[in-house]
Amino acid sequence: MTPNKNDCIPERSSNVDPAFGGIEELQRVIKIIRSRWQNVKIIIRGDSAYSREEIMAN
Fold this sequence. Notes:
The structure is a single chain. By secondary structure, the chain is mainly alpha-helical. It is about 35% helix and about 0% strand. The protein is built from 2 helices and no strands. The protein has helices at about 20-35, 55. The chain is globular. The mean pLDDT is about 80.
């Protein structure tokens, strides 16, 4: 799969919490994946700042 510009995660400055907006971004990306591959198994790896309860519980 070659991503188009709408599929890419936006850049942000280094002084922003890396997990800020993580849930919304995951929901957006998962929606794109599901639209193309309905039955694919999606595994979210939560390392570093992304291993947060509010992200991993959704």
